Amino acid sequence: MARMRISRRAVLRGAGVTMALPFLDVMERARGAARVATGTAPVRLATLFHPNGVYPQNWDPDGVGRDYKLSRILEPLAPVRDHVSVISNLGTGAQGHVGATSAFLTGTPLHKKAAGRINTPNMGTSLDQFVAERIGDRTGMPSLEIGAEPPRSGGENGLAISYANTVSWRSDNTKVDPEIEPQAVFDRLFGVSKKTRRQLADEASIIDHVLDDAKSLRSGGSAADRRKLDEFLTSVRDVEGRIERNLNPADTEAEWKPVIEPELFRPEAGIPQTRDEHLRQMLDLMVLAFQTDTTRVATFMMAHGFSRQNFTFLDGVSGDHHSISHHKENPELTEPYTIVSRWYVSQLVYLVEKMAAVDEGEGRSLLDNTMILYGSALKNGNGHTTQNLPVLLAGRGGGKLNPGRRIVLPEETPITNLHLTLAQHMGVDADRFNTSTGLIADL
């Protein structure tokens, strides 16, 4: 009996829902000669941005190569250090939060006119959009831009803070604002229109609408395919379930209630009530987007470039992130500043572990086929310094990266050299990216 064969572009359909699939053995056989030519699953590029810099004394590790010693901020990397490299001496030369944020993926900061008015941005395209423009036609979505903090307005040194709402620029004059609602991201990933979402409002899960298609596929697949498909559908249902719980929190009886009932301001629809849950949902959605090959380029702004997010939910922290970043070497501020930085690093650890658990065949995980650029546009928030930026690079990029090291580059190496190198690793045919001066040979 002939085995089932399906296209790599096969999807699950039902009741207005279109759901992309993870890589399956039946797709591998269907690709035949094409698989021999490419050899591996596609390479993905993820960028994670966090604001306000770090306290350098607690970021910079000792040593180089594989024997370097994790610093205090980098200690959360311990369980995944073999998957992550620390990159030292990259810079942009930008100034302030706004200029630095715009330069994180472009390498070219904003400037203002002598009269004090803002120049038309003249930065060039950001790395994610540069790559998406060239390979985005291979997937349903050229790129995915997500965030976890609403946009802000105002100004800094003559520059509009709104320019720090994003790190993604399609062109000099066109910024791409991130989507911050998990439900909206989920609906976009899986083709759920607003009309369909209303029709499905009373259903337990959109998966219920593609089950017939899934069962048919499952019955004709290998044992490995059935396991992958079950794991994938469970993961989708889990993400959707948490989104729904945020939209409709349970009204349970608590053992204790405040003497005076507090005023509860529910977040905007779909925005989780805690920072932890919001970031984890977004990271889960990024994994699903890559796992289904819905896109190969994703950017996550974990907070606004001029973020004043409150981190009092962390032990030892009081006040907002921006305020404590201006520490003036006061231990009462450098300590909470360090705690917040460790928390951001822990989000990368979560993503690395999540991707490492996704099997993509040939003995490789999703992490093995991904490059994750993590960092901040400032080194030290206290002085807005933009040299020797805090940058980490995770994953193996389909075998193109050799992680687990501290890589010390020549001082003042343009960050665009890293951008260009990653773009080429994504298959982009280019020998220049904005202000780049060359490639980084050993990553």
Number of strands: 13
Name of the top-level CATH class of the largest domain: Alpha Beta
Number of domains: 2
- State the CATH topology of the largest domain: Alkaline Phosphatase, subunit A
CATH architecture grouping of the largest domain: 3-Layer(aba) Sandwich
- Number of helices, counting only DSSP H or I runs of 4 residues or more: 13
The termini sit apart by 47 Å
Largest sheet: 7 strands, mixed
* Low-pLDDT residue spans: 29-39, 113-121, 252-268
* Order of SSEs: EEHHEHEHHEEEEEHHHHHEHHEEEH
Task: Report what the structure shows.
The protein has 2 domains: 10-39 and 194-250, no CATH class; 41-180 and 275-425, 3-Layer(aba) Sandwich (Alkaline Phosphatase, subunit A), CATH 3.40.720.10. Helix content is 32%, strand content 13%. It has 13 helices and 13 strands. The protein has helices at 25-31, 33-38, 56-59, 96-103, 127-135, 182-189, 194-199, 211-220, 223-247, 275-291, 321-325, 331-356, 415-425; strands spanning 11-14, 17-20, 44-49, 84-91, 144-147, 155-156, 159-160, 169-171, 174-175, 297-301, 370-375, 391-394, 406-414. Strand 8 (169-171) and strand 9 form a beta hairpin.
Task: For this entry, give a set of tags.
globular; alpha/beta; 443 residues; 13 strands; 32% helix; Alkaline Phosphatase, subunit A; seven-stranded mixed sheet; two-stranded antiparallel ribbon; 13 helices
Layout of secondary structure:
Elements: E1 11-14, E2 17-20, H1 25-31, H2 33-38, E3 44-49, H3 56-59, E4 84-91, H4 96-103, H5 127-135, E5 144-147, E6 155-156, E7 159-160, E8 169-171, E9 174-175, H6 182-189, H7 194-199, H8 211-220, H9 223-247, H10 275-291, E10 297-301, H11 321-325, H12 331-356, E11 370-375, E12 391-394, E13 406-414, H13 415-425
Parallel strand pairs: 3-10, 3-11, 4-13, 5-10
Antiparallel strand pairs: 1-2, 4-12, 6-7, 8-9, 11-12
Helix pairs in contact: 6-10, 9-10, 10-12
